[in-house]
Amino acid sequence: MSDGHGPTPETPSGWSAEQPPPYSAPPASPWTAPGSEQEQQVPYGQPYGQPPPQQAPYGPGPQTPYPPYQQQPPVYGYTPHPAPLRPGIIPLRPLGLGDILDGTIKLIRSNPKAVLGLSAIAALIVAVPLAIGQAFVLNTMGSAFTDPGSLGTAESELNSVYGILGEYGGTLVSYAVQFVVVTLLTGVLTRILGRAVFGGNLSAGQAWQLVKGRVPALFGVVALMAVIMLVPLIVFALLMIAIAMNASSGDLGWIAALTILFIIVYIAYYLFFRTRFAFAPSAVVLEGRGPLDAMRRSWHLVTGDFWRVLGILLLTSLLVGLVASILTVPFTLAGTMFGMFGAGSAATTVVSAVLIAVGGTLGSMFTYPFEAGVAGLLYADRRMRSEAFDLVLQTAAIEQQRQGWVHATADELWHPSNSARS
Predict the structure, then answer these.
(1) How far apart are CA 132 and CA 355, in angstroms?
(2) What whole-number distance in Å separates Cα of residue 226 and Cα of residue 344?
(3) How far is CA 110 from its chain centroid?
(4) Above 60 in pLDDT, residue 14?
(5) Which stretches does UniProt call biased (Low complexity) (predicted)?
(6) Is residue 299 part of a domain?
(7) 9 found inside a domain
């Protein structure tokens, strides 16, 4: 029987007293007068009291598939992102400064024989000519230091042909050797880095076999960079010589001011082009481009993120310079002391040269791979940011994880045709 306040059981949409509607606990009418027993069973909140402890607000437990606040699957709200793939030295996503520095350290640690071994050989080759020239100069100056009466003889030796060769020849030979050795080393280390991103290792011989065909293009990039950097210096030097030949003693002040201004402008000039072409070696080795095309490619990749790239390169130079100084200074000081106070002895000259060479080797052995690693990872970061290259790397990494090894064809992924936005 109906109580007169609700639909009858005979109506199509009504509910009987024996069949409570879903999501509603009371079997009777929901329109109950305040103060009656039914007000304790109101399903949505209790303005006049609390529900019985055994009764859920949304109806009996068996009728509710997901009781409120109990094991309800999250549909809306924050869901943590899965960790990015990291098969090798970096996570396969756009990189931060910490990722770049950490990846460079992991590059060195993952393959120390190839990375540090090649860097040590290159650093030793560069340091030996410079150490010999410095040892000769220190030995000549040391004789004047221990015997002031021989000062004139020491000056004549330094001004002689042999003195000039000893003083400047070692430096010039060292720069020439550095031009060749560091260029080759950068190419080999870049190729090792390209494989290490996927978790693979290359020996020094394998890396050289992959890089040797790109050596002419690498030298082309370095030669073009040398021209860009040296032309302003040569023009300014010629201009200063012409001014000095026609200037009087009263013009020295503004000549000095002009020189200081040029140095400031040239530093900005050097940093600008050094940053713009920082990725050219990577483009030569990993993408197979020619010198001019690689420099255009580097210019394009740096566009839009110039200041960040410049800041990371400068910070890297400061860090490696500090560490290299810590490694180099003790040996350089010891070699200088031997050369100064043991002048005239062939043994002390040899010891001085060896100590200076060891110090230079230790410093450069750390500097070369770190700077090359940071430049290579910055190149990868810029491609991930501007070309969605991380999607290509992630797809390849998943396939290589399925196979269980890093195939040599991973090197081909760096070609620009594989970019998601090529």
Answers:
(1) 10
(2) 40
(3) 16
(4) no
(5) 30-48
(6) yes
(7) no
> Is 74 a domain residue?
no
How many beta carbons lie within 10 A of that of residue 324, not counting itself? Answer: 20
Q: What contacts 217, CB < 8 A, 6 or more positions away? A: 284, 289, 290, 291, 294
Helices (H), 68-169: 97-110, 112-146, 151-159, 161-164
Q: How many CB atoms lie within 10 A of CB 238?
A: 10
Q: What is the pTM of this model?
A: 0.72
Q: What CA–CA distances, in Å, run from 252 to 236, 244, 255, 258, 262?
A: 16, 8, 5, 10, 15
Look at residue 241 in the predicted model and tell me its pLDDT.
Answer: 85
Quote the domain boundaries for residue 219: 113-397
- In the chain, the N- to C-terminal Cα span, in Å, equals 77
Rg from Cα positions in the chain: 37
Q: If we measure between CA atoms, which residue out of 195, 192, 197 comes closest to residue 207?
A: 192
301 in Cβ contact with 386 (< 8 Å): yes
Q: Residue 244's closest CA among 236, 233, 252, 232? A: 252
Give the integer Cα–Cα distance in Å for 269 and 266: 5
Per-residue model confidence as pLDDT tens digits over 176-213: 777 788 888 999 999 999 989 988 888 889 999 999 99
- Is position 382 within any domain? yes
Report the Cα 123 to chain-centroid distance in Å.
22
Total domains in the fold of the chain: 1
**Cα–Cα distance, 139 to 348 (Å, whole number):** 8
Contact between residue 127 and residue 361 where contact means Cβ atoms under 8 Å apart: yes
DSSP-derived letter for residue 167 is I
Query: 10 Å Cβ neighbour count for 334?
Result: 16
Three-class SS state of 247: coil
Task: Identify whether the C-beta of residue 224 lies closer than 8 Å to the C-beta of residue 216.
Answer: no
Token output for 100: 């770049």
Alpha carbon 324 to chain centroid, angstroms: 18
Query: How far apart (Å, rounded) are the C-alpha atoms in residues 16 and 107?
Result: 75
Report the alpha-carbon distance of residue 279 to residue 74 in Å, rounded.
Answer: 45
Q: Whole-number mean pLDDT of the chain?
A: 76
Residue 46 scores a pLDDT above 50: no
* Spatial separation of the C-alpha atoms in residues 284 and 299, rounded to whole Å: 13
